[in-house]
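Friendly challenge for the regulars: who can give me the structure tokens for this chain first? No prize, just bragging rights.
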Amino acid sequence: MKHKFLMTVSACALVSFVASSVAVTAAEKNNAETYRLLNLFGDVFERVRAEYVENVSDEELIEAALNGMLTSLDPHSGYLNAKNFRDMQVQTKGEFGGLGIEVTMENGWVKVVAPIDDTPAFRAGLQPADFITHLDGEPVMGLSLQEAVERMRGPVNTDIRLTIRREGTEAFDVTLTRDVVRIQSVKSKLEDNVGYLRITSFSERTDALLREAVSELKSKSGKKLAGFVLDLRNNPGGLLDQAVAVSDDFLEQGEIVSTRSRRAEETQRFNAHAGDIAGGLPIVVLINDGSASASEIVAGALQDHRRAIVLGTKSFGKGSVQTVIPLPGHGAMRLTTARYYTPSGRSIQAVGIEPDIKVQPAKIENLAQAERRSEASLRGALNNDTVKKDGSEAKPDKTTPRGATPEPPAKPAPGPGVQAPGGTTPSSAAASGEGAGKPPLAPVKMGDPASDYQLARALDLLRGLSLYKGQMAN
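First reply, four minutes later:
Bragging rights claimed.
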């Protein structure tokens, strides 16, 4: 029995030794392959230094190699030299120089994620999903995203010409003047009895500014608010901790977002704490295809917890988290380190947040209509016995005999944008530039219900909910 036990222990030890030997051999083999590939890089580097047609500094070559390695992973990873790293740090603080546009790279072209409010790009009418194909007449194809961004930056009050391709239109040029971009990340106002909150980006003070705005709206309304509209349209994202804090502002409990990296033990979960700054009032969140990253975290959290109704169009669909890793003495690397998931466990990567109520941007115009008759205009109509007579009632038409059918008034000519008989449209639409190849660049003034159809729908929805709630209470 003793011999059998010794044999079993010896066999287990042998298996363990063989397994560890195999693991060591595999690791050594991987290290050998890594060193071989590094030697290949060294050979190419030396050959470029010695034989390239022009002199190139070692720093330029190494930076290009690092950036190429990182940008080949995904559109959001990249290398930041010391200057670009400083620029990025300034941007997260809410003020920087440039055009005021968040961009990414797709199929070799620069793609607009969203223009930032009140910036040169916004005033020029650039829209999410526009492609920038040329900068001052030179193609962007072949440039890295960082190189394209560098070319768009420049001294304040200098011009740059962008060539834009927009779906359904021909390419067109637009000239922008560079300016100092100051981001007011939170804007607010009172629309009758509805509080309007617009977050343009998630920078360091976004949560604090949002809390101040909500408190001010409550004070102005005399605590008679019907609800809040949280406008995240054209918000390209920003800091993860600010997205979590803003979501927490409107939630009492539960998960806000989770991030999962390649190692399961590094999974992080962010949870809400008690305290809803809206006091339980209804919320409508506005999103569009310019709502990305941090703004999708907020919309997804409030949607999954059924704390808000999401209205608008599908969001951008960026479901990854980037970590900026400083490289002392050089700059930093921006590396995609995790994916994020909404409280229900869904990833929005490349699919976006689907709104609960889909509302496309639209322009509403009053149609010209023939004058219509009502009961009050009929001869001999009965009086309303619940309305006091004050002399303002419409007098019957004495020129029309009783029983006779009055002549209908002449049909007015169709106004601008009204379809004419036979399916034709007035020539005024063509004269305004629509369909003429170059699209009109005037942007919709977000936050103005008179021209912002999506906001108007959101306000109507909140007022309807308020009316219904009041009727149920009575």
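DSSP finds ten helices and 19 strands in the chain. The first strand starts at residue 78 and ends at 81. Your move, everyone else.
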